[in-house]
Give the backbone structure.
Amino acid sequence: MASVKDTSTHIVESIGGADNITSLTHCATRLRFQLADAGKVDKDKLDSDPAVLGTVPQGAHGYQVVMGGGVADYYSEIIKQPGVHASSDKDSSSKKEYDGVRGKYDWVDYCFEFLSDTFRPVLWALLGASLIIMLLILADTVGIQDFRAPLEEQPEGFRLAHAMYQSVFYFLPVMVGATAAQKLGANMWVSAAIPAALLTPEFLSLGEQGDTVNVFGLPLVINSYGSQVFPPILAAIGLYWVEKGLKKIIPSAVHMVFVPFFSLLIMIPATAFLLGPFGIGVGNGISWVLYQINDFSPFILAIVIPLLYPFLVPMGLHWPLNVIMIQNIATYGYDFIQGPMGAWNFACFGVVGAVMVISFKEKNNAMRQVSIGAFAAGMLGGVSEPSLYGILLRFRRSYYRLLPGCALGGAVIGLFDVRAEAFVFTSALTTSAMTPQLGYALGITVAFVTSFLLTLFFGYRTAEEKQADLERIAREQGESVEEVAARSEFKSHKGADEDASDKGGAVPASAAGAAATGIAAKPAEQDSIVLESPLEGEAVDLSEVPDPIFARAKLGPGMAVQPTGNTVYAPADGKVLTVQKSGHAVGLSLDNGVQLLIHVGLDTVELGGEGFEVHVEKKQRISAGDKLISFDPEFIRSKGYNLITPVVVTNAAKFGAVSGETGRVTPSDVLLRIPPKPEEAAD
């Protein structure tokens, strides 16, 4: 076995040498490199060292080397080597790496991240408003009340319903101003007050929309700022720089009084005279360009939009299109993007619907839970993220089933030149917001059915992925792999997702080990160590973790918990082996001999400690039930991180096959059963 020093030297050589390392940090289990040229990495050479548990490329310049619980020792040894430069967790690991233009230019990367983090919190309110709009349009469709009738002609109840959704759109600039400032680090309430001033009756009393009035000898153009998003974004950016300058010249003792005072005094007029009209012009200009493309050929636009969305959403590039949809509604009274976007959504839901059918047929409990939740969120709410991150990105072959549905559905929608009469999330409940409804309904049906049938009859997994699933299901159900495969097979096809038994025989259930999940379904009960869940949530098989290192049990077998609580507790007496300053992970050495890693979320080290509070320190004695880590689930999820928490036994070689309990768990419920080695149990 190579020493830590030898392995560290080997890693540096394999990564392209010290000159290729621009920065290095580590989390609970991984060395996180930023490289000048990722093409210099010799992956085969890296993997040849048994101490290296796995490698994970990240974007254009990032590279992770998984070392397990001893990662700090390797980190300490590597940074001693000449030419290697470490960096703080906050400086380097808080940045995400991307390919293409986002990887080449930091400001482009930050612009997309800024837009994403600005609009993500607001989408909750937009989704609720869109369903209220759906109800009103449905009432219009069945002849109860004209949706577009002047407000004074609406019955009182319908006026209230209009106010319920209009509140979100009219005051959208206030919400965007707050979230944009929060992302930038400016005061979110001062930022919200800036666009709010332009929505007051006092401002609107200055004149009609489009009028130019004289204020202190300066021309002021009166605009309607309700539903606008670019003006508050520009105002938030301006506020950030104004606050930064004011804090340098105003004594810190009076910051609370005079920084907001001068900020409002400067930024409200600046927005009214300059930034607001400019922001409206930017939004109108982008809308005009897309309008011209749509005017030239709605058919082409309707095919391109749904084919782009499956690639835009994972990179966060779709957020600007939401802005344009709202801008189109405000400018033209309708939108031409939401209709084609529906083809992408329903092709996505078609894939998920087929996965749900397959999972029921296979008795695949893990995928059944994922697909049911994703399908419901999509069909009823128009939210595609659960489908995308739970299935599509995890099983990349599913994209071959998705894209034909996007293209065919978009073509049908383009033929009918479908337009959205209001901003809604494209779900089964919001069809009535589209014109013509029949054309839109036909388009999304074609998208759904195409992707559904392709997935149903040709599968969504590679042969290797399916074989791993069949082995896991066989262990859970106490059946043979052949029985599960026979039950899951659709007799009418033989696709890429065919059984591994057709390629040389299946692995018997009794011999199926922990290669895929690290879990054995029939645990030895006698003399087993029983560990309770360290946190409250939904326990799932480790294979459900969307990270190949955890999913393949590279760091050890165990389970994962999708948390519903916000605290990690000690599952038994012992001591703290290691705890990350960022608070996202803790390693324990329990008195029963088990070494346990609890890793809160995926890539949450990039938060640099934000959203986490650590209650223990390294080498500290702990008792069962002691608080280890507290975290803010809403904040962490708002930053785009998956909170699924792997709980793995890192010294599993000392024990028998580790097993776990799925379903709802609390810190008083059993999560893991760890039996002794078979030969020890026989003594």
Summary: The first helix runs from residue 4 to 14. The longest strand covers residues 21-26. Residues 83 and 422 are 58 Å apart (CA to CA). Confidence is low (pLDDT under 50) at residues 88-105, 491-526.
